[in-house]
Amino acid sequence: MSINVEPLRKILELECKKGYVDSAVIGGLDRFLRNWAGQAIESIANPQFLSRFHKLHLVNPQYASLTKQQRKEWVNGVLNFLAEMERMEEKKGEAKPSPRVKRQITTAHQSIDSPITVIRGISSSLATKFNRLGVKTVRDLLYFFPHRHLDYSQRKSISRLTEGEEQTIIANVWQAQETMLGGRRSTEAIVGDETGNVRVVWFNNPYLAKKLPTNTRMVISGKVGLFNGRHVFESPEWELAEDKELVHTGRLVPIYPLTQGLRSRQVRRLMKGVVDQWAWQVEDFLPPELKERCNLLELPQAISQAHYPEDEAGKDKARLRLAFDELFLLQLGVLSKKRDWQESQPGSPFRAETSLLETFLKSLPFELTAAQQKVLKELLADLEKPRPMSRLLQGEVGSGKTIVATAALLVAAANGYQGAFMAPTEILAEQHFTNISQLLSRVGHQEGGGDYLNSYSGLLPHPLTVALLIGDISQVKKQELQQHISAGDIDIVIGTHALIQKGVEFHKLGLAVVDEQHRFGVTQRSALRQKGFSPHMLVMTATPIPRTLALTLYGDLDLSVIDQLPPGRQVIKTKWLKPVQRDSAYAFLRRQVASGRQAFIICPFVEESEVIQAKAAVAEYERLSREVFPDLRLGLLHGRMPAAEKDKIMRRFRSGELDILVSTPVVEVGIDIPNATVMLIESADRFGLSQLHQFRGRVGRGQEQSYCMLMAQNPSEVGRQRLDIIEKIQDGFELAEEDLRLRGPGEFFGTRQSGLPDLRMAKLSDVGLLELARSEAIRLFEKDATLEKPEHHLLTKELARVWPEAGEWS
Ligand code: ADP
Ligand code: MG
User: Fold this and answer.
1) What does the pLDDT look like over 47-85, one tens digit per residue?
2) Which residues, at least 6 apart from 147, have a Cβ–Cβ distance to it below 8 Å?
3) What is the C-alpha separation between 474 and 453, in angstroms, rounded?
4) Cα(559)–Cα(386) distance, rounded to whole angstroms?
């Protein structure tokens, strides 16, 4: 006999602690015991135990109706019994190793990590069908949650049935027969209770008639309709009213995701058995004090209630526990990555170089905003620490992130370290190079230099050198730069991903800045890290990421936000235009060009592929050039063009040789064109809010009033909502939250983020729960940094399961 008494003992102990008020388990002890005892009884071979088992009325104790004193006695009796059972179990293990042990070993092999074929009733062909849904082990099956529940808990007598609601009746079959309905063989029945009769039909199911002889007592759940003025149930859920627990009717009934060959009744029945039998064997990996503090259900209970909830409250509590688990494990994962990164290698503490910074900041033609100052302080505090900085800097387009990064790069250089500044495109790298060079020339004295290399004296004891390393430069030049970099002659290297390619060896990389984070994957981030002896790392993004997502996706980074734009920034007038307004939009654009401004036109979003997208863009460009703006200078930009070609077009646009830039949405024109004042977006309803905001951010960067025109043919409801929102809201973070709300996190970045464990129960909009999970994860690491304490053993095991690649857990 191998029966797990642990769950029962825990529950009884809890019951004891709570003062015998029948609150230890959702649904009450009686119900729990029916399940537990039904399963236990099969495995008790010893007749003596069996008889005691019966005497204790474990199968049906009617605990709910006992007095407090009786409850206390009963609970203690059962606890004693369990202890004895366990003692016997141990003795048996020692005394009689042979046949018994063999049986134990087989059962030990049947853990919840066994393939689902160990479950009675799951054949290998059924298993294949489940495999198709990603369900391989018993555990997978336990975590195979219904996507929703039908509420059939509302019991009605037949005379009180109302149309249109989900209701349940318990009734006797008067007569059931096969019949033709709509040309198909079907079943029709008349059922009744003490208040009346009602007709029930099951379309396309003639066999049912035979299963329902007269006087069968059955439970029927579904919506009631009207036929010829009388109530009728059409193809409702049904089951026989036996002593067994209801599965299909009369309660919250789970609706499972199905695949071909899996029928819902079959899955439901099967899942009921699986949950009753196996859920109690899932080990609860959360430390008890955490569960108590956060008021979370026990894991077996949560799993059981997630499938077959007692009521709505039970379902909610189950979801809360399971969602907490997901977020908590996720946070433990990301935080441990951060810890590894920060603690496995010592970082290089920098001196803050206050006077150099003061000189630099004084040389700027403006004062830092309060937000910039705050963030710079945060950076400096990180840089002074002996462990590498790992920080995400968020700030709207134009909020002035570059200045802050430049200040940090200066500090690195002054400390004798090199700095790297990585941008997603060549043109952006060039722009940074130009901007940073300009900033430095205000404080330092430029000593020659040129397209790829500038050097400034008067700032540091040695001349400060800045280099641009991009794919576009000649091989000879590149090699020369690489040599200088590895010799340590260059202080600040600005470039694209060319920076992380082979051949680039830094002499002493101390700070890596990554701009526009969302285009770089985690691997690229770490490739850059490998280049240095654990450099400080600053990741910058202009995509406002809602806090919940930031904590989840970039939980390994600390978060800084520049939440303020430099003074005097204009509001970009944003308008959603109907198709009939197209001509006036073009006329407006033309007037802007006539007064010396420039414009962007973003082509409609085409789903199929980049090739088709490029074709569509070419067609649009030709149409506009020929039919609409034949007298203006248009340029075209799409993703299929060679990088050099793209850069050429961008440069022409920037220098004012082009009036209008027609571009596909894939090409994010992430560049400063202060003279551009019009952004016209086609099929604007098909873009996410954050993307629309990014497009809009391309204009309004100069002094002139700027405009964003949104064309939309026939927007869907959600599209309409988005257009309304973008018209009204200018703030990127507010928009990001709205975007998350409207689109869900999966689509937030356009593609699914890889490397993230599945979130089935948790929603990223659960801000409160996410923050709770994070603070609990931090608390746990404070108490047990390596999670090696015995009480965290189960948790470590669970982490190894959900973050297998992390490795260090097991
Ligand atoms: P981001 O990288 O955050 O999009 P940038 O750093 O490129 O923004 O700054 C955008 C523009 O604003 C630049 O021309 C920069 O010189 C200017 N700028 C930055 N900080 C300030 C400030 N505090 N006051 C005025 N202008 C600023
Ligand atoms: Mg920038």
Assistant:
1) 667 667 777 777 677 888 888 888 888 888 888 888 777
2) 255, 256, 257
3) 14
4) 19
Reported as a single tens digit per residue, the pLDDT across 655-691 is: 999 999 999 886 665 677 889 999 999 999 988 887 8
- Residue 580 CB-density burial (10 A; 0-12 exposed, 13-18 middle, 19+ buried): exposed
Q: Which atom of ligand 1 is nearest to the CA of 395?
A: 3
- Is residue 409 within 8 Å of 440, Cβ to Cβ? no
Tokens of 319: 């979801």
CA of 400 to the centre of ligand 1 (A): 3
The DSSP output letter for 605 is: P
Whether the CB of 601 sits within 6 Å of ligand 1: no
Distance in Å, CA 802 to ligand 2 centroid: 36
Question: Is 542 close to ligand 1, i.e. is its CB under 6 Å away?
Answer: yes
CA distance 745 to 762: 11
Q: How far apart are CA 284 and CA 44, in angstroms?
A: 25
Question: If you write DSSP's letter for every residue of 321-347 in order, what string do you get?
Answer: HHHHHHHHHHHHHHHHHHHHHHHHS--
Distance between CA 106 and CA 99 in Å, rounded? 11
- Rounded Cα distance between 519 and 525, Å, is 10
Do 542 and 516 contact (CB within 8 A), yes or no? Answer: yes
Greatest alpha-carbon span in the chain: 103
Of 106-120, 321-335, 387-401, which gets the smallest average pLDDT? Answer: 106-120
DSSP H or E run through 378 = helix 370-383
Report the share of the chain in percent with pLDDT over 70. 87
Of the candidates 288, 289, 322, the one whose C-alpha atom is nearest the C-alpha of residue 307 is 322
Tell me which DSSP letter residue 641 carries: S
In this predicted model, which residue has the larger pLDDT, 493 or 45?
A: 493
Q: Given the DSSP bridges, would you call strands 676-681 and 660-663 parallel, antiparallel or unpaired?
A: unpaired
Give residue-wise pLDDT tens across range 479-504: 999 999 999 999 999 998 778 777 78
